[in-house]
Amino acid sequence: MTESGYGDFEFERKFLVRALPTDLLVGATPDVIVQSYYLASEGYALRVRLQAPAPPEPFRRSADIPGILAAVAGDWSMCTLTAKGPAVGGTRYEAERELDPLVAEEMVRRGGAKVLKLRHAVWLGEDGWVLDEFLGSNAPLIVAECERTSPVTDLVIPDFCVTEVSEDTRFGNENLASRPYAAWAREFEAELVAGGTGYLTSFGRNSRV
Length: 209
Description:
Blueprint: E1 9-17, E2 31-41, E3 44-53, H1 59-62, H2 65-72, E4 78-88, E5 91-98, H3 101-110, E6 113-124, E7 127-134, E8 142-148, E9 156-157, E10 161-164, H4 173-178, H5 185-195, E11 207-208
Parallel strand pairs: 9-11
Antiparallel strand pairs: 1-5, 1-8, 1-10, 2-3, 2-6, 3-4, 4-5, 6-7, 7-8
């Protein structure tokens, strides 16, 4: 159990981002993440993740998954196997365990629907944020996440967040692996034009900065 008493649960909210806030990321090196989903059905997922400091530009944004695997060549800083349950109200069961890097890399090579992304981290006020810059068939999608050890309520939302997508399952990584953003981006943009942007009101008071 964690100090918060919530155990294997994650609490997060997600937002669409149009462009990286480069002024906040000056001097920072993102991580490259390869995720392979061996199960993704009705909100349940089984994932293997490889993570390491990203190779230099311009290679990092032009490489495909085999290229990234070759460039990192086993020097992964974090390798995990994660079981996830369906997300309900910003809360999701997530049991994560470390894997041996060589085993994890070979599992990713051999199977699963995959996602490739760059992860940028920034601290804003009392919250840590990550901005996932998706590559390949999910480019140019960028999603910002705020995660806490308890429900994400009364959130100060930075101005780079365009609209909240916490409850839109299309933005789940396991769904992006099987149905990339390129396949439904126009549909989503039409929805934004028709319905506008917004933020969920069920998590307390939202404020902007």
